[in-house]
Amino acid sequence: MLTGKRILLIISGGIAAYKSLELVRLFKKSGADVRCILTKGGSNFVTPLSVAAISEEQVFTDLFSLKDETEMGHIRLSREADLVLVAPASANILGQMAHGLAEDLASTTLLATNKPVMVCPAMNPMMWEHPATQENLETLKTRSIHIIGPADGDMACGETGTGRMSEPQDIHDSVLRFFDSHKPLSGFSALVTSGPTYEPIDPVRFIGNRSSGKQGHAIASALADQGAVVTLVTGPVALPDPEGVNVIHIETAQEMLDAYKSALPADIAVCAAAVSDWRTEDQVNQKIKKNGAAPKLTLTENPDILKTISNATNRPALVIGFAAETENLIYNATNKLSKKGCDWIVANDVSENIFGSNKNHVYLVTENGHEEWPQMDKRAVASALVDEIINHTNTIKLKEAAE
Ligand code: C5P
Questions:
Q1: What percent of the chain has pLDDT over 90?
Q2: Is 253 close to ligand 1, i.e. is its CB under 6 Å away?
Q3: What kind of fold does domain 189-402 have according to CATH?
Q4: Fold of 6-181
């Protein structure tokens, strides 16, 4: 859940410092890397050795330590983190932060950081309510510093009121929510089609195709992992529903189109399904009997979902189609861009045994030309495609900001 996230935890002086050991353990259990700075006050409550043992990292304590500064200066400490968290945050460190003081390693790092900062205040209720503390907090809020807690309850000093540090699990969950809401595609919605469609011939037989849905499902997962709200419309596949994705199961192309339309509007559309081009013209409600003569099937064209979505009035800002070709791959894919009216085409040569395989070899075709990607696992293709989508949305955001 926090895999790959680097948290710099500053433990300042307060009895709640003992809870920070549990906090480090929870972060590590969720996959985060945790580096700790222990202030002089903090080291009165927990020892550098216990913090080092739990974080499995060197603990930093001294601004003027020749050893620490040469191995990992305070600037690097503040840069090599995705989040700086102060827990517990004493009234003193909140005051230092509010007034830009840089007296020790913790306060200097907080002044030097360009990363998001969260604080978990912990102090006696009178200290918490003191106008000086409250004014410092107001100052920190105007600088977009996130404040977690404090909670109400009995204090170590014997008094009761507001000032207890939030429980480690609550702090952990707030950090998780913070990272979730700061993912590159947070605030974006995406609609993905995947798998084959089945077009009934009679109640037991159908026209289908060999699509496994592996690529479309991987794309839905990768979009969700980057924070998008994803709806996946899938034909019959033997895959589990991807986690964190709203899944709509359909069988026919018409059902896929209806589900897709009902899920609009969306910011991003990815049509990875192998939609059957035709369906039988007649609806047959009883099983067709074998009577010596082969039945004649009259086929009629199915709606083109990609084309319909690309030309809809509430068209997603970015529409991506797929092109499964057996010859003239780039030529056919480039034609498909204009024929369908989509923005990008992911083209693959299906003569290379792509159906059902875990690997894919694709070309990304846009109005600016095409680029070949090396053969990769379908999940790697999905994450490379989502990286391209993130770059594209960032460029749009930058353009909008410049206007
Ligand atoms: O027309 P063709 O099947 O070659 O185009 C492939 C692309 O169009 C894929 O993105 C596929 O999901 C989409 N498609 C569709 N509806 C159809 C046929 C194809 O959305 N009826």
A1: 81
A2: yes
A3: Rossmann fold (3.40.50)
A4: Rossmann fold (3.40.50)
